[in-house]
Amino acid sequence: MVDDEADVRNLVVDLLSADGHRAEAAQDGLAALEALGQRSYDVIISDARMPGLDGPGLYRRLQAERPELTRRFILMTGDALTRETREFIEAAGVVALAKPFALDEMQRVVHEVLGAG
Fold it and tell me: Which pTM value belongs to this model?
């Protein structure tokens, strides 16, 4: 779970844990890349907008350095209607999770990505 807002990170980690997943958090894309260099993860959920390396930037780095992880990428966004975010989602073909979301929606999206990966 990658998000610059601690409350959002903690909430999503708690929701994933309650659903039986082992979840960890990173405060931005650079911290996520560091963690990904140290261990393996089944799913990467990243906020779209963050200071430093944002969600699309993280995806592009993964695409260049570890393309196998892009199939496991979920972009979480509160601004899916902006042209830039919509174009990124469409071009990359990433699964998007719109904030705010219900627990069952997050579960569905995570299980969808796990099943496809």
Answer: 0.92
